[in-house]
Amino acid sequence: xxxxxxxxxxxxxxxxxxxxxxxxxxxxxxxxxxxxxxxxxxxxxxxxxxxxxxxxxxxxxxxxxxxxxxxxxxxxxxxxxxxxxxxxxxxxxxxxxxxxxxxxxxxxxxxxxxxxxxxxxxxxxxxxxxxxxxxxxxxxxxxxxxxxxxxxxxxxxxxxxxxxxxxxxxxxxxxxxxxxxxxxxxxxxxxxxxxxxxxxxxxxxxxxxxxxxxxxxxxxxxxxxxxxxxxxxxxxxxxxxxxxxxxxxxxxxxxxxxxxxxxxxxxxxxxxxxxxxxxxxxxxxxxxxxxxxxxxxxxxxxxxxxxxxxxxxxxxxxxxxxxxxxxxxxxxxxxxxxxxxxxxxxxxxxxxxxxxxxxxxxxxxxxxxxxxxxxxxxxxxxxxxxxxxxxxxxxxxxxxxxxxxxxxxxxxxxxxxxxxxxxxxxxxxxxxxxxxxxxxxxxxxxxxxxxxxxxxxxxxxxxxxxxxxxxxxxxxxxxxxxxxxxxxxx
Length: 490
Prior knowledge:
The protein is α+β, with helices and mostly antiparallel strands. Helices cover 46% and strands 23% of the residues. The strands form 3 sheets. It has a 6-stranded antiparallel sheet, with helices on both faces. The chain has a 5-stranded antiparallel sheet with strand order 8-7-11-10-9, sandwiched between helices. A 5-stranded mixed sheet has the order 13-14-12-15-16, sandwiched between helices. Helix 14 links the parallel strand 15 (445-452) and strand 16 (486-488). The two termini are 33 Å apart.
């Protein structure tokens, strides 16, 4: 019996909404994350068993399993070769089998002889470009109908999102470790700073040392007798001397009462010492200057700590930049991801409402991409997607936004572009794609475009969903009409 087209569309819409919910979800723990994805997937694919696994050192470790009444439980481990997932890991692609007993790769597999699982859908979970584990669903009963392409695409999207969350969590933990180390280093510096001995000295109006304490003696390396025979100018770094003398002149002229400055002294052994110098003046009963009181605090350790702190701050800034980039960038193609696209789309819709200028959106889909992946392997599929991403960037302008929605679906957001311009971009893209080099086989794309020209002064901002939906419907027509073509929404 043929399923009505509207029913298929409703099913796809419901799946999209559920996946959209999963993608936007915030989970308190991995347990809740895995449970939501597994239960949703079991509904999606009508499979009674769902597992999230971790693959490590040839071991298959169960991270989560639904339902929890199974004989297996979270934390159970077994050799990878005893599971169907060994086929997924070996091939590095999604495996979708509706009747394992009739499948050459699985009918003789140890897992089939042991558990008699007939239907199986599994895909790798990748973290930082490597296979971290698998998302898999199974059933002891064979399916009446084979898995559809959309089943494969959806389970890959789900696994991809799980991988992104794990990767984001790992980066967050790395950042927390870096911040903890930074706080620890700062605390050590503060402790050393607070308990450091402070040098004290009485200095004549001419700059000669009149009296020094033991801390100052230890700081500068001279004996008390040696210090009392010289002036502070002889121990001051020449680059700091003019500033120090100018501040003293201002005190003698009554323009200031105290001053503080960071300056360098020369230790007796020739080493430079950074010090925080605080100077005040002692006056007689007639307010005539008598001598200066200097406090000399060794801040050499602080300067070293500041250098280290600056270095660590730069490391933390680089890590934050990386986190920000990951949150808005597709890791495979380095294009904008869906989150970045949605933010830019809302900006352009608001600007479009104010100016009345046309705004076009072009959805691009690789034709028969699953067949390409199945034929040439996942790495070659990734290479084709990156080549398409480069072609999309080539046809875009400075103010355009190029994004990857997921899988083999991309979007071009074209401000200040009418229908004719949108069609022209689609044609240029098709020509570029037809000339892509370095691929195992030629690829083609189907494109669907939608253009919005709002009424100036309208208080209603068109929604991003409506524009996306129109472009998606146009893309659907392009596929229905034979693919490798462009259709524009009315």
